[in-house]
Design a protein that fits this description.
The protein is an alpha/beta fold and 575 residues long. The chain is 43% helix and 12% strand.
Length: 575
Amino acid sequence: MKVTDIEITDSKYKQYKDAWKYAMDMTEKEIHQAVEGMYHNLNTLQSRSGNQLPFTSINYGTCTLPAGRMVTKALLEVSMEGLGENGVTSIFPCGIFQYKKGVNDKPGTPNYDLKRLALESTTKRIYPNYANADWSNNTNALKQDRKQKQEFIDSLDPETYNKLYNQVGKNPNIFMEKLGLFINKESYIEVDKTERQIEFFNTMGCRTVNLLDINALDNFKNNVQHAIDGEFDKIDDVFSAIQKDGRGNICPVTIILPTLAAMTVKKVAKDNVIEYLNRESTELVEQVWNEFIKLLDKKLHEAKDMLLERFNHICSQSVKSAKFMYENHTMSGYHKDEGIISALKHGTIVIGQLGLSEALIIMFGFDHTCEEGMKYAKQIEQLWLDRTSEFKKEYKLNFGVYYTPAENLCHTAFKKFQKAFPEFDIENVTWFYNEDKEKDYKKYFTNSMHVPVYHECDPFEKIDIESQLTSYSNAGCITYTEVGEVPYNNIDGIESLVDYAMEKDIPYFAINVKISQCHNCGERIWDLSLDKCPKCGCEKIDQLGRVTGYLSTQVEHFNAGKKKEFHDRVKHFKN
């Protein structure tokens, strides 16, 4: 065994106690400083258009190697320390803790201590969010990937199989690394079923999920042939059908559900829209529902056509449009002779949605926060999944269901709706009663299939509702809970929420905490009622919160709808 193959905690090193301790201390210090540098750079380098900070995320939590654990520990500790001498909360990168059973979920697992550290960081800095590495959609995709590869190997004719067998025997390491194939004890070519980091539910954020890649099997078949021919340099870098590295969300289109609901009601009820909205008669409800589903189906096909047009336009570009990205495999699968479509075909093109709650209220007077509304919601989501699955097979592109975050669209779609359908000025669509029982206009539509932000419920109820719909999404979604007072160091309370969300098969979970911070000295202010800093007396207080997926100290810079939505959010429990 080479020295480089020995873990840093091996007894070979530990026998020199003083030297080992010194080396470990210095290594931890260097890692800590490196992470500090990374956090500082990602919060100061304005490299995006409009002089914005680059939107960055980092996944961690599942590596059990001593070196990997040290890096994860440093990432969390630096996050909690904050930036600079004032300890300002870091906006980027978005920390994502990979929650995995048997690895970090409960006491006795190797990385449980890192989970507790992550929970502590959440109570102090809002990050990290929590990705479910055991999400059923992810594990099912893994099984399907293994199955289709094995079926292909088993289908080879005897001559081809023997050629492959001989090559695997001569180059076992290359085949395991490049194709995940090995010869088992029964002298049979088998697909490796060991979970790999590259196949976990790693994601840039809540809306960048890449599940089963419909084009990966063709890559695998071509790679097997290259391997048989001994052309190992030609093997593609797309390793798995659920590989995350090198793939991305190419383009989304969003369908505005309240608009479709209003169009349907006007078509069916005709001159009796007001009577219908007042629920004076229920005889038209079934007809409205059937017409809505027809219209939604039509819009799903139109969205598909829009996505195909956009995808083909993007693929018509020269590799020079992003030369570094393609030629250095930042986008995996690029082949010079095929053009950039060879890489882009592995990404996702998705159909999103906005305003499920409002659409249901328009049609029925209730939404999916009640049992009857949930039945209709599931039918809508099932149609979405069915159609995107059909499109995926027909066009051999990764169509998917996307729960749109709607940072700007929540407001622009709302304004257009108000102008187009003034007669649909109804409770919980365009306005609601606030806590003072006064009429309060919303200025926004509810993101995707979320529980409306003003709906009173406890966090477990919110998880229960949204967990019934998250399985329909294969291209990205999030569930969050809004806490009351700052849960400073309430690690056990936060853990109960995270564990419950993971148990309910929520794929991506976040906890929203509002933290105030002095603009002058950086003092974190846990009492949100204070209007000046208790340390220096400064009256300029920055409020940090999750307006969309990322954190922001400048809520007022968002559009009117997003600002209103942020301030309308009810607390799902009080500490």
